[in-house]
Amino acid sequence: MVSRRCLYPMAVSALLPVALLLLATAASALSWRTSSDAVYALGCDFPSAADIGRRSVRGEDCSGACGRVSGCTHFVWSSGTCYFKGGPISRDAAFSTSAPGAVCGVMKGAAATPTVPAEARRFVPIFRYDDGAGDSCFPDDKRQISSRNGKCAAFRRNAPVFVSTATCGDYTVFKYNLWYGKQQSCFLGFGRGTNDNEYVEVWLKGGAIAWVGYYQHNGLYYRRVKSGGPGMAGNRPVVYIGKNSHGAYHWGCTGNPFSRNFCKGGCAYWDDFRNSRKGRYVLDLPVLHVDPTPRSIDCNAPICTKGHSKLPNVVNSACYGVERGW
Predict the structure, then answer these.
(1) 162 with 43, same domain?
(2) Measured between alpha carbons, how far is 277 from 5 in angstroms, rounded to an integer?
(3) Which of 20, 72, 101, 283 could form a disulfide with 127 if both were Cys (CB 3.0 to 4.6 A apart)?
(4) What is residue 113's predicted lDDT score, i.e. its pLDDT?
């Protein structure tokens, strides 16, 4: 897929002002401090899958206790217990917690996992949800899967988004992952599930955006884009999320049953509700984390998978319509 064909670009509905959308995601980040042997923050946790032991100690002694345990690279202290954790780690893996007095930290000199690349923050999509999705599920933190799986999360403008990266020839690819604890039924009970991962890919060439890939479970399609062009808010793709399936699309719905772009709410591609004209739920300030369980990036993926409608209308032409250059 390194050599991509050019597809007809689409217009999108009115967007929030670009200046607002480009606010730094760091505003919601944890405040890190430095001690003699660690970097730590208050009110945070690390995934429990990394646990290698625990000990009852004072909070101020937790990092020292971690330093005396073979393989301990990071730690969490909560309610009188220091939890030792092993493996490569970065501060991007930490997440906020409401546990009273919780502290998390990374030992100095610990082998670090890659941090989120600056370009991944610059090109992170703006995710628009259906105006009526208030009782549906929104992105959640998959690092807390043991307690969040099977549950719906409330909407947050700064919800976690996970990212992985790969190099495909001259392209740098970022794969953004939104995780949902639960997926609602698309029609008559069909499609209901838990632990739902959905993806959007951004392809860069020479530091500029070139392609965006939109995933709907096992389906996907790619569109050629450019900064400031149709379907973009500056450098950031605008992605419409299906209300029930959480599939990603470049085009929203009108909410008008007499319109060609009205979504019927069924299980077929393009049918899921995604009317976001009122902008009630716009995930525009996500907190990015390195994906702890990334899905592989296929450099030779097809331009469009089977199953998308072949009707040559404005919505579906991203896959089968008349292709045009810029």
Answers:
(1) no
(2) 30
(3) 283
(4) 62
* 233-262 confidence digits (pLDDT tens): 999 999 999 998 899 999 898 878 887 778
Q: What is the C-alpha end-to-end distance of the chain, expressed in Å?
A: 19
Domain limit, last residue, from 86, 107, 128: 107
Q: Nearest-5° angle of CA 294, CA 298, CA 299?
A: 130
Task: Look at the chain and report how many structural domains it folds into.
Answer: 2
Among 83, 97, 92, residue whose Cα is nearest residue 51: 83
Q: Which domain holds residue 73?
A: 38-107
Do 142 and 239 lie in a common domain? yes
Do 221 and 247 belong together in one domain?
yes
Residues 56 and 148 in one domain: no
- H-assigned helices in the chain: 18-21, 62-67, 118-122, 145-148, 317-320
Give the C-alpha separation, 36 to 167, whole Å.
38
Structure tokens that stand for 110 in this block: 């610990």
Q: State how beta strands 282-283 and 44-45 pair.
A: unpaired
CB-CB contact of 268 with 119 (8 Å): no
Q: Tokens 């307690």 appear where?
A: 147
CA distance 262 to 270: 9
**Mean of the pLDDT values across residues 165-175?**
96
- Mean pLDDT across the stretch 109-114? 69
CATH of the domain at 59: 3.50.4.10
